[in-house]
Amino acid sequence: MSSEKPRVLQFGRLMPWLEQQLADRYDVVLLAQQPDPKAYLAEHGGEFVAAVTSAAIGIDNAGIDAMPALKVISSFGVGLDKIDVEYAGRRGIAVGYTPDVLNDCVADTAFTLLLDVARRASEADRFVRRGAWPNDKFPLATRVSGKKLGIVGLGRIGRTIARRASGFDMEVRYHNRRPAEGVAYGYEASLVDLARWADFLVIAAAGGAESRNLVSAEVLDALGPKGFLVNIARGTVVDEPVLVQYLREKRIAGAGLDVFVDEPHVPEALFELDNVVLLPHVASATHETRQAMAELVLENLHTFFSEGRPRVAAMA
Ligand code: 8YV
Q1: How far apart are CA 89 and CA 84, in angstroms?
Q2: 0.90 cut: is pTM over it?
Q3: CATH match for 103-278 among 3.40.190.80, 3.40.50.2000, 3.40.50.720, 3.30.70.260
Q4: Ligand 1 atom closest to Cα of 54?
Q5: Which atom of ligand 1 is nearest to the CA of 284?
């Protein structure tokens, strides 16, 4: 590395600790702080060799085009649905990201949602807080232990969810485009068949064009009025208006959702429903995991500048 600090363009705000570390090591410009970010990018994009972003914000191809000297993108998060890795690759830009370090917390959140919606925990909490207990009996919930868990997308996070399931004596099957190697769980080539079999359907598939609206009316019909849906992946994987309708009409039993199509906007029709648990996209949001993600963002940049490639690079 030359004595001059590499110039880094930061897209969107990051954790204060990470922003501080970046500012200590690099010559960082925060795009969001520019009076006209679009105009800034058009005028100054060519000055930056590196970009830092997050899975939530990403960088679109126009942004990549506006940065002709760009060599590396370091993204905070595992999701790559807002970065076109193939396009970046063709331009000779490496993409670092933060898989694996968040598997445990995301899987824990899948179970938080699954247990909450099945056992009606949030609903029961509301019942107690509004003073209903002395006058009313809280309705029965649905047992989780020993039930059937269908996982859509048996990648790193899906496998971690599957391991959690063994603690609840659940039988696990999964749907992927292809059977996963080295796993003993049952494979369902058809998502509809998996939904028909499952008591709980958990979505752990990557977002993006290929998985858009994968969970359709047909899949929800197969899950049926006793089945629960959990989504810790991306809102786009589910046909959201159809899901809202099915929850309203109790055509599925309930849902636990951490992700939505148009975050931070959640369909308001869901607010009045007791059969859905809503989280503000927090599956990886623990001190420990976010710190590990931040460290990997830094390490990916550092190894790019010292060794020519991010330590954990996305493949197109
Ligand atoms: C974060 C995520 O909320 O890693 C991902 O893809 O969706 C979450 O861990 C996100 O990275 C924050 O931008």
Answers
A1: 9
A2: yes
A3: 3.40.50.720
A4: 13
A5: 9
